[in-house]
Amino acid sequence: MRYLIYECDEETIPLEKEIDFIRNYIEIEQLRFGDRLDLRFETPADLSGHTVAPLLLLPFIENAFKHSLLRETEKARIHIGIHFQQENLCMKVSNSYHPEEQDDKLPGIGLANVRKRLELSYPGQYQLDIHPRHDVFEVNLKLSLHAKDPLRNSR
Questions:
Q1: Is 93:138 a contact under the CB 8 Å cutoff?
Q2: Using one digit for the tens of pLDDT, what is the confidence trace for 63-105?
Q3: Average pLDDT over residues 51-72
Q4: What one-character-per-residue DSSP string does 50-113 give?
Q5: How far apart are the C-alpha atoms of 153 and 145, rounded to whole Å?
Q6: In CATH, what is the architecture of 37-153?
Q7: Which of 18, 55, 125, 126 is the most buried (most CB within 10 A)?
Q8: Would you say 5 and 19 are in contact if contact means Cβ atoms under 8 Å apart?
Q9: Domain boundaries of the chain, sorted by first residue
């Protein structure tokens, strides 16, 4: 809660703090779903020196948990990979997906809101690809970190 209340009111925050928050969220979800979850979460060892708009990555991860664990009898798969590619932050989130169980649900506002936030915070400096397939839902985000990083912009 401290992170949400006191630290997310800035335009950008250290990437380390954002990843720590995500890691804590994932730990809670792991407790909730136990052995029904096949989870992989990979991040670079050194995240220092980069900033990102707060709570920008989390909606993709929340959606992965929300939509992959619909069937009680199956094991859900969620794989999250975050890495750097030159001056870009790249995140890939893939999760098990059951499109036949999604059709009767109203579309959520999460992805629409995060697209708006991306456009406001990183106009023309991101690439977002979303691919629902037969049994896997995949999100790929490529974000130019130097666009919002005041330390890098002052050079």
A1: yes
A2: 999 888 766 667 889 999 999 998 899 999 999 987 676 555 5
A3: 87
A4: -EE-TTSSHHHHHHHHHHH---TTS-EEEEEEEEEETTEEEEEEEEE--HHHHTTSPPPSHHHH
A5: 10
A6: 2-Layer Sandwich (3.30)
A7: 18
A8: no
A9: 37-153
